[in-house]
Design a protein that fits this description.
Elements (H helix, E strand, L loop, with lengths): L3 H8 L5 E4 L8 E5 L5 E8 L2 E7 L2 H10 L3 E3 L8 E5 L6 H16 L4
Antiparallel strand pairs: 1-2, 2-3, 3-4, 4-6, 5-6
């Protein structure tokens, strides 16, 4: 996965998910969970690549960061709860899907 459209298409496979562009800056396209409106993936272009911010459990944050140099503390979000995945082709699609899925699972458990 190296394109925003791939991320959005995958994210929309989750129940009650939808795409949102809540900011004046059209660079930011989010995937949200309809029931509480929380975002589980923030997509944006930065430094020539699409980036995806995903929420992660504390025990997984450093695991992903240590496994891939293209998974870094989140840009523009809490670095204690979110990672950024730089879609430069170095992170396998299955692992990107795992991270997005985990983010979705964490967000759907969040209160409104």
């Amino acid at each position: 996965m190296t394109e925003r459209e791939e991320i959005l298409k995958y994210g929309l496979t989750f129940p009650d998910s939808y795409v949102d562009t809540p900011f004046k800056d059209e660079n930011w396209v989010l995937l949200r969970y309809r029931k509480n409106k929380h975002a589980f993936a923030w997509t944006f272009e930065r430094e020539g690549h699409i980036w995806v911010n995903v929420k992660a459990s504390p025990q997984w944050l450093d695991f992903w960061r240590n496994l891939y140099s293209s998974v870094v503390p989140a840009y523009h979000l809490s670095k204690q709860h979110w990672n950024s995945i730089i879609l430069d082709g170095t992170v396998p699609d299955d692992d990107i899907r795992k991270m997005i899925s985990e983010s979705y699972q964490l967000v759907i458990k969040s209160p409104k």
